[in-house]
Amino acid sequence: MSKVAVIGGGIGGLTAALLLSKQRVEVTLYERSTKLGGRIAFEEEGPYRIDQGPTIVLLPEMLHSILEEAGIARERIELLRCDPLYRIHYRSGKVLTKRAGRQEQSAEIENVFPGEKGI
């Protein structure tokens, strides 16, 4: 059996470890943080969950594809739609809300930065 070390327990490292282990490779995962997940990790306080790094937006079909390739049934993983995704606060005082839908995001950009939605 092959042995591999994966450095970093973010989405990339976790995906690599998952797919390698599916190929019967012995994987040791090294992560400097006390939590796995990198930008997909979260903090919990009571009933609230807050993303540690909301700048990563995973495409659900891509995630399902990776899990299916690793032999994990789609039904075992529940993905929750998050909208709005996050807000960006500019020094000027403007606030841009990142929306999940393309039309909603386009309207948001036009509202906050008129004339720039096509950029």
State the low-pLDDT regions, or none: none
Mean pLDDT figure: 85
Give a short account of the largest sheet.
2 strands, parallel
- Percent of residues in beta strands: 15-25%
Taking strands numbered 1, 2, ... along the chain, how are they ordered across the largest sheet?
A: 1-2
End-to-end separation: 51 Å
- Count of individual beta strands: 6
Radius of gyration: 18 Å
What count of helical segments does DSSP give? Answer: 3
Number of domains: 2
Query: What would the principal axes of the Cα set say about the shape?
Result: elongated
SSE order, as H and E? EHEEEHEEH
Approximate helicity band: 25-40%
Report the structural category.
alpha+beta
Please tell me about this protein's structure:
2% of the residues are buried. The chain has a two-stranded parallel sheet with strand order 1-2. The chain has a two-stranded antiparallel ribbon with strand order 3-4. It starts with a strand and ends in a 7-residue tail after the last helix. The chain is α+β, with helices and mostly antiparallel strands. It is elongated and about 60 Å long. It folds into 2 domains: 74 residues, no CATH class; 37 residues, no CATH class. The longest helix has 12 residues. It has 3 helices and 6 strands, in the order βαβββαββα. The mean pLDDT is 85.
Give the key terms.
119 residues; alpha+beta; 2 domains; two-stranded parallel sheet; two-stranded antiparallel ribbon; 6 strands; 22% strand; FAD/NAD-bd_sf; Squalene synthase
